[in-house]
Amino acid sequence: MGNDKSVTIAVLGGTGNEGGGLALRWAHRGYPVIVGSRSAERAQEAANGMNATLGREALRGLDNVAAASEADIVVLAVPYAAQRSTVEEVKEKLAGKILVDVTVPLVPPKVSRVQLPEGGSAVEAIQKLLGDGVRVVSAFQNISAHHLTHLDEEIECDVLVCADDSEAAEQVVGLTRAIGLCAWNAGPLCNSVVAEGLTSILIGLNRRYKVPGTGIRITGIPTGQE
Amino acid sequence: MGNDKSVTIAVLGGTGNEGGGLALRWAHRGYPVIVGSRSAERAQEAANGMNATLGREALRGLDNVAAASEADIVVLAVPYAAQRSTVEEVKEKLAGKILVDVTVPLVPPKVSRVQLPEGGSAVEAIQKLLGDGVRVVSAFQNISAHHLTHLDEEIECDVLVCADDSEAAEQVVGLTRAIGLCAWNAGPLCNSVVAEGLTSILIGLNRRYKVPGTGIRITGIPTGQE
């Protein structure tokens, strides 16, 4: 499914930097993409901007509920404070689908300090809320939005993909590789605590070294063996 | 201090693979190193073996308490199950020193599943136990013992160093770079939850790809700017 370009991807929070960057990259590679937002109008504006960048009508904008309803795979890229309420809002539209959660549980102003939610990762609470009928996958927490939006830039950051359903994990690994990123199946959903927390460490390094977007690479796996 | 080779380093659990690899590397670079173990005899045997590898009397072996007592910097590289008891045993000898904790809170048999201790990281419990008189630093969790013991091998894994005392963190960054590893100040001690958990993800990748030791690299910081 990762390379099946008939799959429609909705990015909730696609008007933000991280969600917008992902939406743009998938559209650029030929996937039908829906930008979701609380406001259908702002979603369409964002989609229009990206279509202008790409020079074709590759994206459209809808409110989050409609976007989730029309998509095969739903990506959640909203701020941590809006994570739970957004999922509750679209819950009925997710049955049988994969939800890819990009949420990083940052607690401003100390965003370079790892502050985990009660119980570990932010994504596990969402899987619990949705139950077994939705396959929740965690991914993309460490990818700098700065890099995503520069389409021609090679992104020097690997993606850790965590899920309890390994088939869903492999689909998201495929969708990630489709936009030129190196992705790894990093194990069960609870392992997402590492990917979520790592973002705070990277933000700290960005500040210390005055760079726009540090990242991580997995080493020790021979090329071609992935 | 990181480059001051008069500093004596004790590695508690230096008879194990990870601790032994670190001890060997520091001794190889000219630091006076003490191998610590519950048994002084086994510690001396391990030290003898490493001295034979190096071709000179660079290490000696002592029981953990004597090793901690004689060292300037104490490295704790024991299994998670022995972490707390070892620290309690040597506590009186650590006053005013830096304790570098290498502990990974693995819970066999599910070692590729991130299973964090109550409250977050394993190292924070040790800092709490020791109080403000000991500067606890977390480091080396992600370095494969396999790579450490091959002295001529370049290790393709960066070290995340976490500490609440930033001067202590910088000293450990220096000691890490002294053995040819790339090290980063990754922020406060609580951020160690990421380094500790990451080891489970790397163990999972080792198994999946049948390789001896995956690792991580931090990207996005220009060479020479570290």
How would the blueprint of this fold be written?
The structure is a homodimer of 226-residue chains.
Chain A: E1 9-12, H1 17-28, E2 33-37, H2 40-54, E3 59-63, H3 64-70, E4 73-76, H4 80-90, E5 98-101, H5 122-130, E6 135-138, H6 145-148, E7 159-163, H7 166-178, E8 183-185, H8 192-209, E9 215-219
Parallel strand pairs in A: 1-2, 1-4, 2-3, 4-5, 5-6, 7-8
Antiparallel strand pairs in A: 6-7
Helix pairs in contact in A: 4-5
* CATH superfamily grouping of chain A: NAD(P)-binding Rossmann-like Domain
CATH topology of chain A: Rossmann fold
Report the portion of residues of chain A in β strands. 15-25%
Shape of chain A: globular
Average pLDDT of chain A, to the nearest integer? 95
CATH architecture of chain A: 3-Layer(aba) Sandwich
What is the C-level CATH assignment of chain A?
Answer: Alpha Beta
What structural class results from the helix and strand content of chain A? alpha/beta
Strand order in the largest sheet of chain A = 3-2-1-4-5-6-7-8
Counting DSSP H or I runs of 4 or more residues, the number of helices of chain A is: 8
What separation lies between the terminal Cα atoms of chain A? Answer: 18 Å
